[in-house]
């Protein structure tokens, strides 16, 4: 189901993560805007110059309300995957709108993408800073097996890479590259906690192998 019917789900007491609600809301907006835009052009015989202004007067308050709702949630979110999912939903809805010859939503979609990008960057920089501040000598113990931090990074990186394939975003790629550099540096720092060179190499190989197995 693309569009969630609020009263039906309320009766069923069903709860959804934000990206599900976002998809439903934005698709409903997309579908209605496309129909209304084409209707206005046909009924009032508007051309491509006058139609956008006429349409904006009708939907401006709706756009502002939905933008505010997204900004309110995003500003408190620390879930980069959910934010990235929302971004890629917008990318796909942009394609649909343009296929329907309704480019009027492009500006609104670009605003939402910008909001998501900014929040994603804040979260990523926070994560990068956290990795930089890790002090391996304070760990109670480090085993030769892949470290849980590296495992979490590999799973996160795999998810982001998969999402970023179809609609590549240079800003996202740059942040992921920075995170990768810090993770590799952390692996080396953790390996230095082992006294023997052989153990250091085994630890490095195990962690690299985990990253490669998840990403490939």
How would you sum up this structure, described in words?
- By secondary structure, the chain is mostly helical.
- It has two domains: 1-115, no CATH class; 134-216.
- The protein has helices at residues 6-12, 18-43, 50-75, 80-99, 106-133, 148-163, 170-191, 197-215.
- The longest helix is centred in the middle third of the chain and has 28 residues, at 106-133.
What topology emerges from the helices and strands here?
Elements: H1 6-12, H2 18-43, H3 50-75, H4 80-99, H5 106-133, H6 148-163, H7 170-191, H8 197-215
What would you say about this model in short?
The chain is mainly α and 216 residues long. It is built from eight helices and no strands.
Overall 3D shape: elongated
Number of alpha- plus pi-helical segments? 8
Q: What Rg is obtained from the alpha carbons, in whole angstroms?
A: 23 Å
Oligomeric state of the chains in view: single chain
Total domain modules: 2
Percent in strands: under 5%
Which properties best describe this structure?
216 residues, mainly alpha, 2 domains, 8 helices, 76% helix, elongated
């Amino acid at each position: 189901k693309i569009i969630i019917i609020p009263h039906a789900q309320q009766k069923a007491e069903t709860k959804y993560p934000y990206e599900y609600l976002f998809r439903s809301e934005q698709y409903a907006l997309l579908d209605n805007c496309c129909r209304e835009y084409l209707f206005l052009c046909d009924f009032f015989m508007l051309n491509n110059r006058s139609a956008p202004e006429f349409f904006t007067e009708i939907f401006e308050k709706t756009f502002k309300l939905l933008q505010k709702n997204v900004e309110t949630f995003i500003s408190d979110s620390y879930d980069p995957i959910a934010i990235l999912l929302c971004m890629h939903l917008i990318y796909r809805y942009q394609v649909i709108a343009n296929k329907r010859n309704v480019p009027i939503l492009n500006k609104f979609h670009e605003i939402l993408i910008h909001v998501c990008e900014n929040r994603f960057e804040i979260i990523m920089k926070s994560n990068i800073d956290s990795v930089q501040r890790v002090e391996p000598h304070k760990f109670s113990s480090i085993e030769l097996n892949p470290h849980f931090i590296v495992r979490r990074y590999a799973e996160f990186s795999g998810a982001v890479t998969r999402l970023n394939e179809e609609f590549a975003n240079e800003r996202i790629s740059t942040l992921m590259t920075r995170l990768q550099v810090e993770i590799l540096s952390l692996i080396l720092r953790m390996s230095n906690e082992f006294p023997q060179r052989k153990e250091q190499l085994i630890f490095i190989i195990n962690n690299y192998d985990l990253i490669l197995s998840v990403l490939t």
